[in-house]
DNA sequence: TGTGTACTCTTTAGCATTGAAATTTATCTT
DNA sequence: AAGATAAATTTCAATGCTAAAGAGTACACA
């Protein structure tokens, strides 16, 4: 899991960091750098916060990711290990071990698919679903607090802008030189 | 390092995901969820892109992080291992090993501080600085492409909004229940 | 029916990370 | 000056990840 550790301290402020970049690299567009750096820092801080919350519930951030994927798949909350692995960006091997741990903790069950015995079905237990719900409640409180300074209009604009950026990275692939070129 | 792996595939669209969340969790504010999910996805995609670029230069994303921290510290590009560790959010132990590798590759040097022999000084080599510069050039091209759909005004608004969110997480600490409360 | 091929999951070996203990050097107290 | 305490780094054992090899099952096609 990415950058979930706590205490990010003695870090320069965003402004100091951008000033330092400009000193060392003249071609830098400070506006672009501000967006990119803020994005990355924000994400790191948020992951730390989520990590603290899930830890308080006795699960790891990694386990929460699995619970989320299963719930999002909809009732009856079943997925195969390789689907889960693709969804979370893990190798199937890592998924095997992660599921091992979660079965031992009673968050999911693992059984063979009787109609195709190559396949394995991972299914959320009621306990797993309950954990997800508790984590979800904490997460929404945190997220609402995070955004409390933004008016509904500002939220709309922000969501719109981020979605546009996301579409750009998702529908484009960097070429050999790293340039983003449209696929459609 | 966080979520730097490639191929994030067979993922539901952002819209599908939010619809699924609303089905499973009625209290969800779709506007908030849109922002938070887009942020997290965007960051993941960007890390994948950066990873591809640094890999093309023969360094890992982890090594790039160290190079960035050293350059940002300004000439003469020296830092102690524990400062680097704090800056990158790693344990000192991990820093020791990472520096080992980078010394072996000639990106940095490690020597004892003669004025206080407990301390160690990690210093960027000219080769390390050159690698940073190459990575920086690729990164700025990617970042400019990423933001190409946003007008200068939109960029300003976006940067401003993200900075505001960042200030909120940085100056606030979640309490036992996970609420963000101001420190100032 | 039998064999080849493809697919899914697990096992194995290697690597980066963490947390805790150990090591080395500096500083404080008397 | 001696001994205790503190600080910075490294060493060590355990964890979770990746990549690649292995095992088991289903399906196609002769």
Explain this structure to me?
2 copies of one chain form a homodimer. Chain A is mostly helical and 184 residues long. Chain A folds into 2 domains: 1-56; 59-164, Arc Repressor Mutant, subunit A (Orthogonal Bundle), CATH 1.10.10. The first copy, chain A, has helices at 14-24, 30-56, 61-72, 81-88, 92-104, 126-146, 152-170, and strands at 78-79, 108-112, 120-124, 172-174, 180-182. In chain A, helix 1 packs across helix 2, helix 2 (30-56) packs across helix 6 and helix 4 packs across helix 5. In chain A, 36% of the residues are buried. The model of chain A is unreliable at 1-8 and 175-184 (pLDDT under 50). The interface between A and B is large, with 86 and 86 residues. Chain B binds a DNA duplex (30 and 30 nucleotides) through residues 1, 5, 62, 80-82, 90-98, 101, 116-120. Chains A, B: One of its GO terms (molecular function) is DNA-binding transcription factor activity. Chains A, B: One of its GO terms (biological process) is response to stress. Chains A, B: It comes from Streptomyces brasiliensis. Chains A, B: Residues 32-167 form the HTH marR-type domain.
